[in-house]
Amino acid sequence: MMRQYELVERVRAYDPEVDEDRLNRAYVFTVQMHGTQKRASGDPYFSHPVEVAGLMTELKMDEDTIITALLHDTVEDTLTSIEDVENRFGPEVARLVDGVTKLSKIEAQTEDERAAENLRKFLLAISDDIRVLLVKLADRLHNMRTLHFIKSPEKRRRIARETMDIYAPLAERIGMYEYMHEMQLLAFEQLEPDAYQTITARLAQIRENGDKLIEEISQSIASAMDRSGIKAKVSGREKHPYSIWKKMQERHVAFEQLSDINAFRIIVPDTESCYRALGVLHRRWQMVPGRFKDFISTPKRNGYRSIHTTIMFAQNMRIEVQIRSQEMHRAAEYGLAAHWAYKQDDAPDGQAGWLRDLIEILETSQDPEELLENTRMAMYQDRIFAFTPKGALHQLPKGSTPVDFAYAVHTDLGDRAVGAKVNGRHVPLRTLLNNGDMVEILSSKAHQPEPAWLNFVATGKARAAIRRHVRHRERDELIQLGRQVFEDICSRLPGKIGAKAIKAGLGRLQLDSEDELMLAIGSGKLSDRRVMEALVPGFDPGGDEKDWPSQERAISIRGLTPGVSFELGECCHPVPGDRIVGLRREGRPVEVHTIHCERLSGDTEGDWLDLSWGQGSDGGSARLRVIIHNRPGMLAEMAGIFGFHKANIINLRMTARDASFHTFEVDLEVHDLPHLMRILSALRASDAVAQADRVFG
Question: How far does the signal peptide extend, from start to end residue (predicted)?
């Protein structure tokens, strides 16, 4: 463990003007506050904050950050309050310590809820000052270094998973690759122990059999640079076991099939020399197509700059090479932290672009699971680059679509997106984007995000924004539906239900507003009987549920959105004009079924509502079973009938086939029941069709 004078000397080495007395007081304070507390290793607990402070000195952080590292656990694990910290060390340190401190554990919260709330508080703090993140990453790194002392395997795996999902990606996002690699390696050892042991053993065997190979390749590259007059420092290393394992998973190959387990780095004086060195490499050795990336011309979102290429060395050996300047190398080692060296004037704003996205996700995520899912999506994915028509560059995770791109440009643009052009060509919104695509988003002020987008978006920001809109629309529509049900309930009660009775009923149901009442009714949280009892206490026509007044009029679903407040049954495919009923279950959209649906005869839990489409309702999906003669052109004739009647085919599949007939099931978009019946009549009149019927289940 680092002693008090050693810590002070480390800081003095890069900041001669440091307040030594303040540092000493912070060191003594953390020792006194943690007292006899022990870590799982048996070491005094205060050894941990001291080591975290030591990690901060390696980054040459300022005095307040060093003190924050020393005190970061005092508020959470001792009787110290934020006010105590502020009184002793000032408001700046108190603010930083508060940002790093986890929320107090609340027993009613689940593990996910605690993790989500801690993450929420933490991200809000680092949006204000990125030093909070630097201390937290050092805190997690030291905890991972001592993780093996924890006896419980489940607890070790939980901490390792959290590190892999949250903290390693955060380190990567600010360019702290050394922290990221070490955290990933330590987490990998806990999460995949067998794979870790296998890969490390194979690497050790390779080192033993060819320990001079890396040195020989490095010397060969250095000689090529020297002959071309380029001053370069060349070094080689094995790839990290986790990086190798990840590549094995992505490529679905065994260790022996990987040919590029060694990586080499060329460090040159300036940017121009980077491109000269690249030319020397590609002239001397054959490059591997598709393995070249220029992060100098197009830096990563975290500011990382370097040139990556893969070349074929002797005996068809693939080796990866990174080329960067000395300045780029310093930034690549510690990323954003490199800008925080004491008294630098260009310390970056904590509100980096990716961080703004995370803060927006915080504001739009409703529950803990959603928050954790969306932040992981935002942080932990490989990136591609796409451009707006004006040339603005946006980084996105692989698997992104034009919808993700629209939300990356601006949330409002994502909300209004109706179509997209990629490289000048109209494409569906679910199209996957590739590196270098030029994307133009077509928008309409009248449009709103569609629930179906959730099936293909890849970014946490897009998913959070879409869910927010769906929730708001769902709430509004459930209130609208609940109001109609409420009016029907009132019509079944004796006497007129006025504002006074409604206010009294809200009190009995412990609700604050009429909207809350309508929402509870629409979402199935309140049964008709409970509402009746709240509005008219003592009203009891009989003990049996069947003796209570039943629904008097059908509830209209006109104006409500499929997939939001109600869902059309996949079993019976109702269309406007069908006699319909709805299954209302708590926390779920109302399921709409035809009166012929087999679900009606089941004993499904929930309340059945008598529903109507409402005058002028349009649009639905019907399923047909069509048997056609097995002759050339018959399928085309069937499709021609659909086209003539302006009905769009959603899905078409053959379900049976023999020498004389083919049987198809067709999902068809129609306006209403009369439209569907005209199509069925036309099919039955066709010589191509032997039989045509509607399918209800």
Answer: none
What is d(CA 48, CA 139) in angstroms, rounded to the nearest whole number? 8
Provide the token pair at 162.
């959290």
Determine the pLDDT at residue 46.
92
> Per the structure block, which two tokens stand in for 294?
């220029």
- Dist CA 259 CA 255 (whole Å): 9
DSSP 41-79: TSSBTTHHHHHHHHHHHHTT--HHHHHHHHHTTHHHHSS
What residue ranges in 392-500 does DSSP mark as E strands? 393-397, 417-422, 425-427, 437-443
Question: Does position 436 have pLDDT exceeding 80, yes or no?
Answer: no
Annotated catalytic residue within 20, 77, 320, 333: 77
Tokens of 552: 């008097």
The residue with greater pLDDT, 286 or 172, is 286
Distance of CA 424 to the CA centre of its chain: 29
Return the amino acid letter for 51.
Answer: E
pLDDT by residue (tens digit) across 568-611? 888 888 999 889 888 888 777 888 888 888 777 665 566 788 88
Of 572, 577, 585, nearest in space to 524 by CA: 585
Q: How far apart are CA 352 and CA 316, in angstroms?
A: 42
Answer yes or no: 129 catalytic: no
Burial class of residue 527 (count of CB atoms within 10 Å of its CB; 0-12, 13-18, 19+): middle
- The 3-state DSSP class for residue 228 equals coil
Q: Please report the DSSP string for 314-350 in residue order.
A: GGGEEEEEEEEEHHHHHHHHHGGGGGGSTT-TTPPPS
Residue with tokens 């939001």: 564
Q: Whole-model pTM above 0.70?
A: no
Q: Summarize the confidence of residues 540-554 as an average pLDDT.
A: 65
- Pull the structure tokens for residue 593: 């079924």
Sorting pLDDT into bands at 50, 70 and 90, what band is 149?
very high
Q: Is 303 helix (H, G, I), strand (E, B) or coil?
A: coil
CB 324 within 8 A of CB 332: yes
Q: φ and ψ at 665, to 5 degrees?
A: -105, 130
Q: 197: which 2 tokens?
A: 């042991």
**Alpha-carbon distance 526 to 553, whole Å?**
19
- Residue with token string 């290793």: 41
226-258 residue pLDDT tens: 999 999 999 988 788 888 888 888 777 777 667
HSE toward the beta carbon, residue 347, CA cutoff 13 A = 14
350 pLDDT higher than 80: no
pLDDT tens-place string over residues 23-56: 999 999 999 999 899 998 899 999 999 999 999 9
Q: Which of 20, 43, 76, 162 is catalytic?
A: 76
| CB-count burial class (<10 Å; 0-12, 13-18, 19+) for 194 | exposed
The mean-pLDDT minimum among 14-28, 429-443, 533-547, 603-617 falls in 533-547
CB neighbour class for 139 (10 Å; exposed up to 12, middle 13-18, buried from 19): buried
User: 260-303, pLDDT tens digit by residue?
Assistant: 677 899 999 999 999 999 999 999 999 988 889 999 988 877 77
Q: Which residues are CB-contacts of 527 (< 8 A; sequence separation ≥ 6)?
A: 607
- Mean per-residue pLDDT, 650-672: 92
Say whether 544 is catalytic: no
For the stretch 633-659, pLDDT in tens is 999 999 999 999 999 999 999 999 988
Backbone phi, then psi, for 8, in 5-degree steps? Answer: -60, -40
Instruction: Report the distance separating Cα 525 and Cα 2, nearest Å.
Output: 59
